[in-house]
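Teaching note: in complex prediction, the entire set of molecules is handled at once rather than each chain in isolation. The prompt given to students was simply: 'Predict the structure of this complex.' The entities are:
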Amino acid sequence: MFESAELGHKIDKETYKQTVPLLRADLLDVQYELKEQRKFPVIILVSGQDGAGKGETINILYEWMDPRYISTLAFSAPTDEERQRPFMWRYWRALPPKGRIGIFAGSWYSSPIHDRIEGGMTQAQMDQRIDQINRFEQMLVNEGALVLKFWFHLTKEGQKRRLKALEKDPRTAWRVTKWNWERLKTYDQLQEVAGHVLRMTNTPWAPWIIVEGEDDRYRSLTTGKIILEAIRKRLSDQDKQATPVAPPIQPNIDGRDVISELDLTKKLTKKEYEEQLAKWQGRLAELIRDPRFKQHSVICVFEGADAAGKGGAIRRVAAAMDARDYQIVPIAAPTEEERAQPYLWRFWRHIPRVGRVTIFDRSWYGRVLVERVEGFCAEADWLRAYSEINDFEHELAEAGAIVVKFWLQISKDEQLKRFKERENTEYKRFKITEEDWRNREKWDAYHQAVCDMVDRTSTGTAPWTLIEANDKAYARVKVLRTLCERIEAALEETPRPKEKKAKKGKKD
Amino acid sequence: MFESAELGHKIDKETYKQTVPLLRADLLDVQYELKEQRKFPVIILVSGQDGAGKGETINILYEWMDPRYISTLAFSAPTDEERQRPFMWRYWRALPPKGRIGIFAGSWYSSPIHDRIEGGMTQAQMDQRIDQINRFEQMLVNEGALVLKFWFHLTKEGQKRRLKALEKDPRTAWRVTKWNWERLKTYDQLQEVAGHVLRMTNTPWAPWIIVEGEDDRYRSLTTGKIILEAIRKRLSDQDKQATPVAPPIQPNIDGRDVISELDLTKKLTKKEYEEQLAKWQGRLAELIRDPRFKQHSVICVFEGADAAGKGGAIRRVAAAMDARDYQIVPIAAPTEEERAQPYLWRFWRHIPRVGRVTIFDRSWYGRVLVERVEGFCAEADWLRAYSEINDFEHELAEAGAIVVKFWLQISKDEQLKRFKERENTEYKRFKITEEDWRNREKWDAYHQAVCDMVDRTSTGTAPWTLIEANDKAYARVKVLRTLCERIEAALEETPRPKEKKAKKGKKD
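The expected output is the structure of the full assembly:
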């Protein structure tokens, strides 16, 4: 894997001086075209051996291009806001918007490689992380991003020479710390671990680019030219490549499906409703205050037909909690900033930290519901969305989130009744629009989309709960009960926090 | 101040039951109208004595209104991302956008009141903070926000009764902690401090609303009605109130001003330039790596006539630093999300944490330059911007930021020469647009605006440096030198960090 980067590549001063001016002009050109087109972001990962010129490369890119449209993200120890959310959250929040270049000095690769070498991470855990990374990068590429992963390589001897040279030069001496020399000792280990990671993540959509790091001129020119050609090629690709990403939708040949099977006659009497509402609201209030909940969060998704009673159900859930503990996020059309990012970005930004609850009133499932049915996105895009969503929810769950998803179903007749009621009630009129009537005409298409959604995204960690919602009382209680049961189950598997003394495993 | 809230107000059950349904319907109505109009945000501060019903009030507002368009912000100990930025940063990032209601459970008042009682804050420090808060709220109101500040009051006896009642009820017992009982002991002290703060911040633009907290029904109804009337009134105010906020601009009667006085013939030879550039870049690199810099940040503003060489100067500054240590923020038209917030919001979001550098390529001064000259905002708005900007920069400086502002000036002839050059150079053509030519026609208006800007916003903590920029070499060196001198001056006043042992004042 590293052989080509151990040949002792060198570029002489003269060639360098002749080549650079043109390269710079070309890089500037493509950068401005990128900025004008605003069609995709460029994500550059800069990684490799210490002393192999990572920092120098970033600085030279800034010199050669317009630094105003580049951002560099350096990641050291996560901040507490980051620690309290899923692993990938900090990278999502750092993604460059379309038209910009984002350089990741340190990336989602750094901490797994580091943790593996330091021994905190098993091979199996690392392979899981690698799998997650591959899926993440595939999503980025499918969303249009150009992902360039650089690994700057040095031989062990070369690393020693570089560190010495850096140390000798007063302008760079400060960059060589004791830590770097320590790292030299783990050279073999890093090579082994990195070799494995690079091999496993050397995907067709985001392959590694390994560059020999010893000669400054060779390294800079190579990197610059690769970036230039990659951006140029993507700019000239008129159409987005259509990547087949999911098998076609399964046909329904006997007319039976999860939605049709629902018994929409289920109902509660007023008395039952009042008793059970109070019971489950009380239970929810307790669960949220359980000390074990501090290690979890709840991410609750409400989807459903128009007028199925999402709002009413959400209010009954909210009423059981302290307003300071939850946030309701109504999902409408994406804003300008959100449109300049991958589809899931606008949901990531609302992910709660541990100890808190976020309720999504409509959600990322819009991709496979309204966007699919209305043709707002290409088939390839919503087809791949199923697995992207599964990955997303898996990451949330991995970080302790309890992901609870509700689909509220009413019959077509019940919907008509409610629409008419809304039109005739002064203070409900805002709730009914032309769009609702238009959506209603596509009832069957939505029906199919919901069935496919449930089939493909009801997973063990984040199952769908289908709610029979013709009777509002029944629906609300079932929502509350399900929510309580899911939280309860999660808490049962959570050890009670120890006494304060034992915190962080230290003896006092 | 609290007398009216000690009368033992009470509402009987019957009246309450009769009044609430209509109030709820009305509140929903105004909330939806607020959401539709999207003209202003509603900021509700909920503060007061423990047990006076702060939490209950928030919860009832959620019950009465549509919780999807309300957010509640609770502030406890600042996160490390917040601690590393100015005091007000966490509140800025939590502001609701236009059309939404944001409830602050705990606000910019909490920590000064707390710190004053706990003894960490002197009276003078608190009065400074109060002054800052008044200016902040005035800015919010001038930006169109409706600010409602509630203080829920209890007598000492009343507080005791409430705590006991809460403790008795199993549904609320969890909310009464030992801490609350402790607070009862400091009742008198809180009353004294809060009384002072409330008096000093009882401004015409954001007066305090003091509500007796003992009777739930009285408190809820009062709060609900006040919110209803306040939003309703603001919705019906067709025009934004014009608040006279700054004295008129001073006339220039002898033709002399800070811009005309600049000697634009200043220049450097190529040799001088190369030597001095290297010298100051080296110096800057050292200063940024100085351990004392960890307690500061640099916020660097570049403004200047079109083609004055801002980009070139920025690149020379950037070249001296590690790309991981700085961010360049080019300011263009605000995005949708930014337009839904007060003017300064979009700059607050880029404020660096300590140890880092942010370079603004154009800045908040757009308000008093292009927006003033082009008539993009009302006169009252740009007139008040001067003091808002001064407050803003003062807050930055207070948190350790070194605010360095450059105005790059060229002559009208030099600009023409550069415009033509740009039109004739292939790779510079992107730099010149129709707009540049249009701006040029308004040369004199900009000239006046720049002079006023310098007069009104060149402060001791954040002075303007005017750069004679007809000669690019001279300009770049002066920028670098000034920047170095400002950082150096700040570092000289900064104690060197102690040995690690002494950190946090603990003995090992």
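Point out the following to students. Strands of chain B lie at 42-48, 70-74, 101-105, 146-153, 208-212, 297-304, 326-330, 357-361, 401-409, 464-468. Chain B has two domains: 3-236, 270-492.
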